[in-house]
């Protein structure tokens, strides 16, 4: 799973799932971000060289920052837990998985109050 989150607003910018890890999926994920969001001045917090290599191909920078990554790791655990809950009975295709992730992104951004944002949703934080 690949995701991009604004660490200040907690807004989930993009999320996708691929059948494998590596430079190719990371490189496929990044163009969607550049199409939808202005990320020229963005600092990417990454954990592996796959992302660093993909970022370099797109002339973007990435660094390892454990203090900011703790929030991201907790978020990934939450999403993974929710996926595990329905995975055992779900018989969907990769397309339906991506559709579910888009719906989850909308739900997370618009319907889930965030404690770090004083009870506001990430969308409310961006709009204010």
TrEMBL record:
It comes from the Archaea. InterPro entries: RNaseH-like_sf. This is Transposase. The lineage of its organism: Archaea, Methanobacteriati, Methanobacteriota, Stenosarchaea group, Halobacteria.
């Amino acid at each position: 799973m690949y995701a991009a989150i604004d660490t200040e607003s907690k807004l989930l910018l993009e999320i996708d799932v691929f059948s494998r890890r590596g430079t190719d999926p990371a490189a496929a994920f990044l163009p969607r971000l550049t199409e939808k969001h202005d990320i020229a001045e963005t600092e990417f917090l990454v954990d592996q060289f796959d992302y660093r290599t993909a970022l370099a191909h797109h002339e973007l920078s990435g660094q390892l920052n454990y203090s900011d990554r703790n929030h991201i790791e907790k978020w990934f655990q939450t999403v993974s837990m929710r996926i595990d809950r329905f995975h055992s009975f779900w018989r969907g295709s990769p397309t339906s998985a991506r559709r579910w992730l888009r719906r989850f992104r909308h739900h997370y951004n618009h319907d889930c109050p965030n404690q770090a944002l004083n009870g506001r949703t990430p969308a409310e934080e961006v709009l204010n």
